[in-house]
Amino acid sequence: EQAVKAGHEILENGGNAIDAVTKSINILEDSPLFNAGKGAVLTHDGTAELDASIMVGSNRDAGAVAGVTNVKNPILLAKAVMENSPHVMLSGKGAEEFALENDVELVNPSYFLTKRRKKALEKVLQDEVTPNNSSASVDIDLSDYKFGTVGCVALDKHGNIVAGTSTGGMTNKRWGRIGDSPIIGAGTYADNETCGVSATGWGEFFIRGVVAHDIAARMKYSKENLADAAKQVIQTEIPEMGGD
């Protein structure tokens, strides 16, 4: 509710959708309740690796970051990449160096280590060792395991659509795994002629299905309405591939 009200206030006062999206996502990133920023899930090694992206529908400009470990609000770094670099996506140490050069707030990686996420990782690791132990698996909350990514789509008074997404990824992820959230066209997409999309779900399948762009493309080329396009992609195509 706080996030929605903050973004709405900006739009109500004639502000732009970029500011509304980043402000709303900042609030969600700063809360330990969500799988983004402060509440990010932990990797196999017990660290947080954060991803985010933002896209503007008027000119399809975009920025994204992946695998950052010390950026307090990854969505602000994604915005900085979009506005202050010639690139769309930066990752890891390079993205963190860019954050330092652009005065994006950095924190000690321990900032992201919440008791809730530590407990969730411990349960998943225990289940890997003893998969038949019901006490190790029954207590795992699927929202801790795959879901909880945050996102926002806004339409401002100037007719501009902006979409943004921020996530900690998947509990127990390894090898620098990156999901759909920082990938333009998979987890985030915006086009003023069609729609804005911020996705959450099983990232591997959203990448393979290019979900965010597919929904917009169906509206643009097949003239489907938003509800039908989203339903076809999310409830038919993704399940057919084995995802949800």
Structural write-up:
This protein is an alpha+beta fold. The protein has 10 helices and 7 strands. Strand 6 and strand 7 form a beta hairpin. The longest helix is centred in the last third of the chain and has 16 residues. The two termini are 26 Å apart.
Give the key terms:
alpha+beta, 244 residues, 7 strands, globular, five-stranded mixed sheet
Output the number of helix runs: 10
Question: Which strand order spans the largest sheet, edge to edge or round the barrel?
Answer: 3-2-1-5-4
**Percentage of residues in helical conformation:** 40-55%
Name the beta content range: 5-15%
Question: Main beta sheet: strand number and arrangement?
Answer: 5 strands, mixed
- What sort of overall outline do the alpha carbons produce when their principal axes are compared? globular
**Which structural class fits the helix and strand makeup?**
alpha+beta
The count of strands amounts to: 7
How would you classify the quaternary structure? single chain
Mean pLDDT, as a whole number?
Answer: 93
Point out poorly predicted stretches. Answer: 133-140, 142-146
Order of helices and strands: HHEEHEHHHHEEEEHHH
Radius of gyration: 18 Å
Distance between the termini: 26 Å
